[in-house]
Amino acid sequence: MKTYDVIIIGGGHNGLVASIYLAMKGLKTLVVEERKKLGGMADTAEYKGVKYSRASYVLGLFPRRIQDEIEVEFPVIESDYIEVFVTESKKVVKVWRDRDKRIQEFEKLGEKKYSKLDEFILSSRKLLEEKFTYVITPPSIEEIKQSNELLLEKTETILREYLDNYEELYPIFSYDFMLSQPSYLFVYFFSTDWKILKGGMGTVGEVLSKRAKELGVDIITGSKVSEITIKNGEVRGVILQGGERIESKSVLFTGNPLLLENLTNGEVKVDVHSPPAGYGRYNIILKDMVKINDPLKIDYFKGLIVLPQGEITIPSVVDETLNGHVITVMGTMEGLEEFFPDIKEKTEYVDKVNWRVVEKEYDNPYGNPNHLPMYSSYLFDNRPKKGWGYRTPIKGLYIGGSGAYPGGQVTGIPGRNAAMTIIYDMTKNNKY
Prior knowledge:
Blueprint: E1 2-3, E2 6-9, H1 13-24, E3 29-33, E4 44-47, E5 50-53, H2 64-70, E6 81-86, E7 92-96, H3 99-108, H4 114-133, H5 141-147, H6 155-162, H7 166-169, H8 184-189, H9 202-214, E8 218-221, E9 225-231, E10 234-240, E11 245-247, E12 251-253, H10 260-263, E13 281-286, E14 304-307, E15 310-313, E16 325-331, H11 343-346, E17 347-353, H12 355-361, E18 397-399, H13 413-427
Parallel strand pairs: 1-11, 2-3, 2-12, 3-8, 6-14, 12-18
Antiparallel strand pairs: 4-5, 6-7, 9-10, 10-11, 13-16, 13-17, 14-15, 15-16
Helix pairs in contact: 1-9, 1-13
Protein name: FAD-dependent oxidoreductase
Pfam family, one: DAO
Domain FAD dependent oxidoreductase: 5-314
């Protein structure tokens, strides 16, 4: 019977990040991935040879610190803008990466207090980065409040305070569901690093798996774990769907925590109200490049465009490796002709990705791209359950996916922190 120091269930970006940290500490590590390819929802799909980012679509929250620590580099497309936002009235707002230019852009729009909002966002992100991000024990709400109580104010309250034209401009900073949630959330999602990734988002898995293999990590794809074996309240390993048993006293689960109940025969249960995610994601394969109406310009498509219809990318404008023309839409296709007048006649194929597709193809219950809701009830040390952190009630069973602190998107932070927790528990050494 095979034996490992650590078995990781899930070969998404968090599982791969964790495997690298563990291998760098000399631990014999195995990654088991149900799908035949790695990366999870950071996935590049193909249609007749044309590549496109199927689920996640831009990279922006993966910290430089983690890339440096595990010695990887992602090939991003550089651009001058974080995003280009087009209002309902077709006003164009260029959200520059350069802070001075960004402030000037908003001041031209009559936003006299924007510099204060920018300072709030950047100083809050710095606080979170320095004090609350790289931890093995997630912070409590009380700790966040003591450091900056404004992070617990409603997002709408903060944005109304600093935006003169709130109704028109708040979508630049916040999705609608965040408005009633703590401002921590819109700070969490803000980044000056949102960029298109060359080769599609599947490049994340390719880069991370290459590094993991260099370090000696064993990776099994196309194989599902049917059970996490537990005896006397302690992990003993896993059983694969075909019946193969693999032993380990440490198992890291990086999938949706809602799956743990079945995998542990009911010994670990996460009670989270997680309704089906209500988003529409459309990947449009084009016969040829579409025409672009004013007020848009081709230069804007080096990055993310936000139209009234939703978040749009045309990655093929800047990435020839995709082998064709692609438009991705996170929102709705209705009314796109206003900006791309010949899009219907140029469309060859549309891949619609909704919660049902995500649930089935990525084994993610209810299809939430963050695994669990990013609501106040499931933030900080409440994610996924009060008192857990990266550990579960079963000794040796850990969690380190988007359902763990700090949450979703392609960050690698839960994977890193979970790996550090395992290393700490093995060595009882505070210097993690």
